[in-house]
Amino acid sequence: MIKRLFVSLLIIALTCAYVMFSDTLIEPSVHPRYTKVTAQGQALSPWQGPWACVLDRQHNLLWEVKTDDESIHDGYWTYSWYDQGLGTENYGDCYFEAARCDTQDLIHHTNKQTLCGQNNWRLPTEHELASLIQPPARPGQPYIAYDYFAHIKKGDYWTSKAKVKLQQKFAHLKQGAKAVNFHSGEVVSLPYRNAAFVILVSDVTKTYSHTQLSSRDTSTTQ
Amino acid sequence: MRRPIFILLHTAAIFAITLSLLSGFRIATLTKPYILTVAPLLPSGQVHNLHLLSASLLVMLSVYYLYFTVNSGRITSQNRYHNVVTFFGYLVITICLVSGLSNYLDLTPTQFLSLHYYSALATVVYLLLHSWVYILQYGRRAFKKILLMNTKSVPYGLLGTLGLCTAILFFLLNTLTHTLNVAPISNQVLMEIDGLANEPQWQQAHTFIIDTTNGANFDDGHTQVHIKALSNHKETFFLFRWADPTKSLQHLPLIKTSQGWKVKENGFYQFDEQSHYEDKFAVMLSSSCDIGADGTSYLGKKPFSNKPANWHGKGYHASLDGKIRDLWHWKAVRTNNMVLADDNYIGPLAQPLSGQRRYKAGYQTDGKESGAYVMNWLWYSPNQVTPKRLPTPSEHNHSSVLPWFGSQPYQSSKDTYPIGTQLSSVLYRSNRFEGDRADVRAKGHWQNGYWTLELVRKNQTESKYDVTLNNNTCIWVSAFDSSQIAHTRHQRAIKLRYSL
Q: Which residue numbers delimit the Cytochrome c-552/DMSO reductase-like haem-binding domain (chain B) (predicted)?
């Protein structure tokens, strides 16, 4: 009887141990291409934030992250394409310029701000921006990794490719610039005067190592 | 032949009771978080099916055992202790079966809703007093006595008959539905979606009443939902009315502390807020009517081996049979001012996203073209947040929604609000959704402890994420009292019956 009681208690103890040590840990998975970076230039783990830039490890680029805080990086602002005399000045809409906005304004303000420790912000090339296109993960979302590039709109985003011959309904305007449409995931040609969105890019000038990534999250997103 | 039959019945009873208890306790984790302590021992996934199947088997075994003992008499001799324990076992298992069946049929009076759970706990006590004491008394011989049988002696006919009867009972129980008669109205009748239900057509419509249970914050977790439905050729109107003594419009409010702004919460970090949340109401629609919210309930912390676990340990909704289930989610703060219910759906498992901490499996929103409410914080942290906007001083009236016009971008220099100030966390960037997500118009009105919700949708939309409204459509309803996910529920589906 004592032996049977002992065996029973042993089974109960083993069951308790199993229950105590079999809890499922919930950990983030590292994105194969992107890393979040703070406005001060520090790399974050996937669930940490807030982040102001995304490090594109595949192309060694740093992308500006749009916001909805009415700062100069707000995703609702639009810009006409303009670069040192080429294009159309001040045909977009934003709140941070006394006049209206163009692409040069955003580049100027972002470099002055040294966003994420960089002062070489520019418009992306067609190849760079088109490389962000990917099918939406959820219905109605834009063609981009929306968990990293939040506040991207389903609309046109300027590239640096200018002096493009315009076709069809825009033919009379002769030249414009290339843009990527994240609603359809296609590259289009638009007149300089169009009010389109902008996501800036910069060439990475510092090294981001995985040792910078925190293994424990202190902040979370919903 | 009597002994092999006894061994077969006893072995099947062990199987059925064990499966019933384990699946039942998993279902109970939804409302009794302390059971999560032993969650690793419980099955996960579609446990409602397991529970109904094991209960069906137990019913068949009980019926046959009654017949068997009446005809054959007792075949085991027990001492006085085991006689008493066995009587206790018969009693609690009978109560458990009857209360479970009553719960399944949505027939249990409110005051007896917990009887099934407590009789299940009593069954565990019975198992300890019965099985454990036998094992202590006889050791391994106890197993030989009740399990071993010559293969030639196995009553295969009885085994097959029990299996077939169990399958038939399971099928019959699974196909039982309630019926909601949808009254016809003319296309010329104007129905105003205002939550007041003062059109004469509502007064004339038949009322269907269903008890929903196991929701957080309701009295004993229970609220009775009164449902009416009207339809012209193009649209169906629903009227839902349910008791909720507290009108909860404080949705994760921000409060100013000496350390800055914080989100008032009690469970939000685990996505299971149960105190500082708006009231809500949900309607699920499907073209089939099965148990377990039409097979969309997958309980447990990690019911899908190749997908992320959930934070609250309760489970997910997903639709893995290739069909979409529609889900209308009315929210007293976030969508009521838009005169909308959030048009959502339950579909296949979504691809997990590296940057998102909360994985929602098959529960997703329909797409929208534009329009949104956003949370009024730059970045959520349980410790401190920075609001996106502050109300202009003349507009600060503690309203449940912070309007765009009437607020200004946050600046620390303008943040002169005293400690203890409360602020809405729901910021409207536009008046309403546009597109697929805005297919369901809805308006709720709270008065004297009752919410009244009027809701309308086209019978047939063009969205692949919507379910058509017709005679084959089943609906399920759930009320939320100041809770994020802890909603009330009922077992059997409600089938729509149109008379047009």
A: 199-492
